Amino acid sequence: MRPPNSPAAPAKPPTPTPTTPATATAPPAPPPASAVARPVESLTVPEIIYVEDDAALAELLEYGLKARGYRFQAYRNGREALRELLALNVEGTHPLLLLDVDLPALDGYSIFDALQRDRPGTYRVVFTTVHGREEEQLRGLEAGALDYLVKPISLRVALEKIKRWVGR
User: Which residue among 36, 38, 101, 166 has the highest number of C-beta atoms inside a 10 angstrom radius?
Assistant: First the structure.
């Protein structure tokens, strides 16, 4: 400690430290942020996507899925749904797609065909429809759908099936 009112000691110049070439110790520069592949967080990808134009059924499904804690997305129009489904980044996941057969703008079978062609194996599809004839059900199953739900749908039964399809 220096006594009060005494002059301060002159500042000493910093001692130079030896440097080594940057290539010897510095790690390679990281690629630009836009070039880095970012894995999709599985917690942001919907577990279930449903395309349903009937407002009452869509609200019922939303209520049940929220109550069970599922991550989900909903669409009411076939053309809008297809555009979004083709663009959705679901890398490494396989969301369950509840797909109504009779939709405005584009029917469920056309959506299914486009997904099979452009994003094969991305979505696990279950058709939903009022058409419960054997031929209709076989059409969906033979096309590659996981299952076929005939409306009117019991919410309790639908949620139990969804639990099994999603695996939780």
Answer: 101
pTM value surpassing 0.85: no
Residue 54: which CATH number?
Answer: 3.40.50.2300
CB 131 within 8 A of CB 107: no
Domain that holds residue 110: 42-166
Residue 24 lies in a domain: no
8 Å CB contact between 88 and 62: no
Task: Please identify which residue in the block is written with the tokens 């989900």.
Answer: 72
